[in-house]
C-alpha cells in the first residue's frame, strides 16, 4: 500500500494505491473532481463508487461537515474468530470511559 498526498492552495488530496486499486479522497468535492479528471485523462480508470470497505475496515459513517469518519472492524473480527474456531464464545464488555478522546500523539 502506498499513500500519496497532494496539497495546493489550502486543499489536500489523498491517493491510496493498493495492488491494482485506488482510493481517492480530498478536502472538497470540487478539488477531488478536478484531480480525478486529470487522472482519467492520463490513465484508464473506472469509478466503482464510494468505498464501503477500506483495508478490511467498514466505513460506517462519513460526516463531511464534522470532518469525521467512523470505521468498524466487526466483519474482520468475525473472520478471525471463525478462523480460530471461536465464533460460539460468549462476548464480554471492555470497560472504557464514555466520550474518551483518542489521539495519535502521546499525552494529548
From TrEMBL:
Designated name of the protein: Reverse transcriptase Ty1/copia-type domain-containing protein
Q: Which domain of life is it from?
A: Eukaryota
- Per the record, a Pfam family? RVT_2
Domain Reverse transcriptase Ty1/copia-type per the UniProt entry, residue ranges: 8-96
Q: Which InterPro entries match?
A: RVT_2
Amino acid at each position: 500500500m502506498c499513500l500519496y498526498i497532494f496539497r495546493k492552495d489550502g486543499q489536500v488530496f489523498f491517493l491510496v494505491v493498493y495492488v491494482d486499486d485506488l482510493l481517492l479522497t480530498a478536502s472538497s468535492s470540487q478539488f477531488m473532481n478536478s484531480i480525478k479528471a486529470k487522472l482519467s485523462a492520463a490513465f484508464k480508470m473506472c469509478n466503482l463508487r464510494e468505498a464501503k470497505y477500506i483495508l478490511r475496515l467498514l466505513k460506517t459513517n462519513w460526516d463531511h461537515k464534522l470532518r469525521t469518519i467512523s470505521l468498524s472492524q466487526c466483519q474482520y473480527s468475525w473472520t478471525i474468530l471463525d478462523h480460530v474456531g471461536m465464533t460460539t464464545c460468549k462476548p464480554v464488555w471492555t470497560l472504557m470511559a464514555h466520550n474518551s478522546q483518542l489521539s495519535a500523539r502521546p499525552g494529548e
